Fold:
Amino acid sequence: MLKRWMRDQRGSFLIQTVILFPLMMLLIGLVLDGGWMYWQYRRAEVTVNAAAQAASHAIDINHFRATDEVRLHNGQAVAVANDFIQLNRRGQITMTGIRASPHQIIVNATAKIPTIFFRLAGIRSLTMNVEGKAYPAFGINHEGQ
Structure:
């Protein structure tokens, strides 16, 4: 009777399904949440980069006219980056800092990304840091540019 039971194939599909179904659901969840998080992270990164780019256009005109050197107007650049983030943050991006020097602006922010499938495991959201950098430029400085 034991030999007959060992050769019997009935119910083997059920055992395989019970073992593999949680693994399949875990993989589907990782793919869905991973894709969602990557998309949200890229959206936050694009917003922060665009804020830095918009701020890089706030050059000090008086200094440029006097010396032909392009440099940022620090106060105006910070205000432009802050305004840009506030208008385009979509409730998920929190600005953590703006550093402006005469030749570069760096915008730092955190993106709080809600999860979909990981909520079942108690992980409601993930926080990621994003950074955008930009350099000021004005007009054509030399031939071939």
Observations:
- The chain has four helices and three strands.
- The chain has one domain: 33-134.
- The helical segments are 2-7, 12-55, 61-67, 74-88.
